[in-house]
Design goal:
Blueprint (H helix, E strand, L loop, with lengths): L19 E2 L4 H14 L3 E4 L18 E4 L6 E5 L4 E5 L4 H10 L2 E2 L12 H6 L7 H4 L2 H4 E8 L4 E4 L12 H5 L7 E9 L1 E2 L3 E9 L2 H14 L3 E8 H10 L13 E9 L7 H15 L4 E4 L3 H12 L1 H7 L3 E7 L5 H15 L4 E7 L4 E7 L6 H7 L1 H14 L15 H7 L2 H14 L21
Parallel strand pairs: 1-3, 2-3
Antiparallel strand pairs: 4-5, 5-9, 6-10, 7-8, 7-9, 11-13, 11-14, 12-13, 15-17, 16-17
Helix pairs in contact: 7-9, 7-12, 8-11
Length: 456
């Protein structure tokens, strides 16, 4: 039964595939891809099926075969001293975290779907998460890639070379390509030292601008801050209402909240709690922050993070929303959050807009919730597209990107085309045509279907 793999995680895209293939080796992947290329059978590579933009869902016409990489689930090697590991595409992120921890190292990328998201999918979407502030996106953590190309040949790029000037960087070309240029089968990943101690704080602030000022205070005081997440009161309220076992970290309400984590990997260094206390004391004294609490235990720290990780689930429970994964220049983000929300609320009466997420790297998830009582299916089909075009125009006007970490998939095809320069689109298409001339790799994702793929 392959029905669960024909629908996306958000249940927005429903496709059909005649069969799901689960190769158990790279050689089997090569055999499948070579045959598909020869017979011009489209393939949809799939890992944990956690795409937020329909990037791993087959198209409705049933022309494509799902190629699951879940059985390629081995950590081939882990060199703790070198800080490098080779993980196959089907390795689940949480399992990779555990493997690194066993070697007293860590992989510094995490996200809410870590229990199901796979390494191949994370590479192919250039995933972000909550630790980008210090460690960058997946692109910065990938030291090499192994991938099966459209003709079935194997690109062997796992060597973690510091210098390699042999022309175009094919490794990085495959990162974020959403499976449209090659099927990632393994990646060499950079590891970080294990955390010796951490401090997790929850802070109440009046405005996003105050939150940014607080971030700059932390950055000026040292380099210990690894995560800096911004949440509006609406998002916290949704979690407290719909996620059992959660409670407000602060005794009184605040318009905005910040979740900040500082860490040290040096067991002989001072505990980061003192660092966080010092910065927060000054921020409270100066009126940048209005209240704050530092987790007194690991359990409380995890409770704080559970609130942040539960926002998407909680907001789904509140009703339909047009969801946007956007980035703008960091200094422009506070004003964007306020002005864009006001503009959306005025343009679409009855809606409620707000953003939450990774303020430290200029990426937030900007959601415009439907009016109370709106029919989910009808509103998403008839009203949400207009909302999205309006929001995307605001993002572009602010010098930002309509896709910060989720990719393009099926969801943003039309908007990418509408808002990108002709030179960008021509370059993307030229690369796709050169690497996948038959158009078999994940058709209808990232780029619109080529005429030959549509049977014209």
């Amino acid at each position: 039964m392959i029905a669960p793999w024909e629908i996306d995680w958000r249940k927005r895209w429903q496709g059909h595939a005649p069969i799901l293939l689960q190769p158990g080796s790279v050689t089997e992947v090569q055999t499948i891809v070579a045959a598909a290329n020869r017979e011009r059978v489209p393939l949809v590579p799939q890992g944990g099926n956690t795409s937020m933009v329909g990037g791993a869902t087959p198209l409705p016409d049933g022309s494509a075969v799902i190629l699951s990489l879940r059985r390629l689930n081995q950590v081939r090697s882990l060199d703790a001293e070198a800080g490098l590991a080779i993980a196959e595409a089907g390795v689940i992120l949480a399992d990779f975290h555990a493997a690194a921890a066993k070697a007293e190292r860590r992989f510094p990328l995490t996200l809410g779907a870590r229990g199901s998201a796979t390494i191949g999918g994370l590479v192919s979407t250039n995933a972000g998460g909550t630790q980008v502030l210090r460690w960058g996106t997946m692109r910065g953590l990938v030291a090499g890639v192994e991938a099966v190309l459209a003709d079935g040949s194997l690109f062997e790029g796992l060597s973690a070379l510091k210098k390699d000037n042999r022309g175009y960087d094919i490794n990085q070309l495959l990162v974020g390509a959403e499976g449209t240029l090659g099927i990632v089968t393994a990646a060499t990943l950079r590891l970080a030292p294990a955390i010796a101690a951490r401090a997790v704080a929850w802070v109440g602030v009046e405005t996003p601008d105050a939150a940014l000022r607080l971030l700059r205070r932390f950055e000026a005081a040292g380099d210990a801050v690894e995560s800096f997440e911004l949440l509006p009161a609406e998002s916290l309220a949704a979690v407290l209402t719909h996620v059992s076992g959660t409670r407000a970290p602060l005794p009184s309400g605040h318009p905005w909240h910040v979740l900040v984590e500082a860490v040290t990997s040096d067991p002989d260094a001072s505990n980061p709690t003192a660092f966080v206390e010092r910065v927060l004391a000054a921020a409270l004294s100066d009126g940048i922050a209005t209240d704050a609490t530092i987790a007194a235990s690991e359990a409380q720290a995890e409770a704080f993070w559970r609130i942040r990780d539960s926002i998407s689930d909680a907001e789904r429970a509140t009703g339909p929303a047009a969801q946007h994964d956007i980035s703008v220049p960091i200094e422009a983000m506070p004003r964007f959050l306020i002005d864009a929300a006001k503009a959306c609320d005025a343009r679409f009466p009855g809606t409620r807009a707000s953003g939450f997420g990774h303020l430290g790297d200029g990426n937030v998830h900007f959601h415009v919730r439907a009016p109370a009582g709106a029919n989910r299916v009808t509103w998403l089909a008839e009203e949400a597209p207009s909302v999205t075009r309006f929001v995307d125009d605001l993002v572009v006007a602010a010098g930002g990107s309509i896709s910060a970490e989720h990719g393009i998939g099926q969801m943003k095809l039309a908007e990418l085309e509408r808002l990108s320069s002709p030179s960008r689109m021509a370059t993307l298409r030229a690369i796709k045509q050169a690497m996948d001339p038959e158009g078999i790799l994940n058709p209808g994702k990232l780029l619109a279907l080529a005429p030959q793929a549509m049977g014209e």
